From TrEMBL:
It comes from Paralcaligenes ureilyticus. Belongs to the ABC transporter superfamily. Residues 1-22 are annotated as: Disordered. CDD domains: ABC_NrtD_SsuB_transporters (cd03293). This is NitT/TauT family transport system ATP-binding protein. Keywords: ATP-binding, Cell membrane, Membrane, Nucleotide-binding, Transport. The keyword Transport applies. Pfam families: ABC_tran. Residues 29-256 form the ABC transporter domain. PROSITE patterns: ABC_TRANSPORTER_1 (PS00211), ABC_TRANSPORTER_2 (PS50893). InterPro entries: AAA+_ATPase, ABC_transporter-like_ATP-bd, ABC_transporter-like_CS, ABC_transporter_ATP-bind, P-loop_NTPase. Gene3D superfamilies: P-loop containing nucleotide triphosphate hydrolases.
Length: 282
């Protein structure tokens, strides 16, 4: 396990004591000095964070630490009071198709079938006919809803609705998928199934994925990197590289060890206390 400070380039020390830059993948999203206020309330204070192309990054922290504010700032839904967000080197000006969002509450149109929900974004782009049908069939298949294409959201279970929401977001072909506690409203068994399915989809689609959760085990099971956040005001304290090999097991020693280590970071309240560890810089 390695840790880096938000936004910084990782470096490795060579035998001769010289510092040599590691190869860092290209940056998909760069957050620089992000500050968000709601009236007098400081929800995010000076957040710096880089998300790499194809990265599965979890924003992990307790309720109220600014996870949704940060995700919404990346989506372009929240205007920062200071700082900025870049996507592929360009500062964002608002929401755009390159960033797709999946919310905790299934944001499907209740008056449209699964198929029509999935087709909604591509149809707005002017796609029609056989091509539109092809897109909805492909994404229905990808999320395992091929038998439910003609159902309405109220005819689906919670898990199926969230699969449909993922398919709808992917059908827009975003470069970056933003997910705000997407499995938070699901029962534990369905949640685990969808976690595994999302990983499979991510391996096929290779999108950059930014996933909000307050579950340590979810973050450790899913993410390449975990941005650890704390409240009052919302900050990213550390970014931990999760090097546990995939496919992962929730019952492996290394899974438990990483969960325990992160839990201790939260229990100590000030994550900087772990800075004595050679693996963690504060
Ligand atoms: N629209 C808003 N108006 C006022 N305060 C808000 C608003 N949205 C969020 N907040 C506050 O900002 C802080 C961070 O909220 P949020 O980003 O939703 O955190 P999280 O997703 O980690 O729970 C919280 O204290 C929350 O009460
Ligand atoms: Mg939230």
């Amino acid at each position: 396990m390695q840790a880096e400070t938000g936004g910084g380039q990782m470096q490795a020390e060579t035998g001769g004591g010289q510092m040599q830059a590691e190869t860092v993948p290209s940056t998909a999203v760069r957050i620089v000095g992000a500050e968000a206020r709601y009236g007098k309330h400081l929800a995010l204070a000076k957040v710096d964070l880089d998300v790499y192309e194809g990265d599965f990054l979890c924003l992990l922290g307790p309720s109220g630490c600014g996870k949704t504010s940060l995700l919404n700032a990346i989506a372009g839904f929240v205007q920062l009071t200071s700082g900025y967000v870049e996507v592929k080197g360009e500062e964002i000006a608002g929401p755009a198709r390159d960033r797709g969002m999946v919310f905790q509450e299934y944001a499907l149109f209740p008056w449209l079938t699964v198929e029509k929900n999935i087709q909604y974004g591509p149809r707005l782009k002017g796609i029609c006919g056989a091509q539109l049908k092809e897109i909805s069939s492909r994404y229905c298949r990808l999320v395992g809803l091929e038998g439910s294409a003609n159902k309405y959201p109220n005819q689906l279970s919670g898990g199926m609705r969230q699969r449909a929401a993922i398919a709808r977001a992917l059908a827009n072909q975003p470069d970056i998928l933003l997910m705000d506690e997407p499995f938070g409203a699901l029962d534990a068994m369905t949640r685990q199934t969808l976690q595994e399915e999302l990983l499979k989809i991510w391996e096929i689609e290779r999108k950059t994925l930014i996933f909000v959760t307050h579950s340590i085990t979810e973050a450790v099971f899913m993410a390449d990197r975990i941005a650890i956040m704390s409240p009052h005001p919302g900050r990213v304290n550390h970014v931990i590289s999760n090097t546990i090999k995939r496919p992962r097991s929730r019952t492996s020693e290394e899974h438990f060890a990483m969960c325990r280590m992160i839990e201790m970071m939260f229990q100590k309240g000030a994550i900087g206390q772990l800075s004595t560890s050679p693996e963690v810089k504060s």
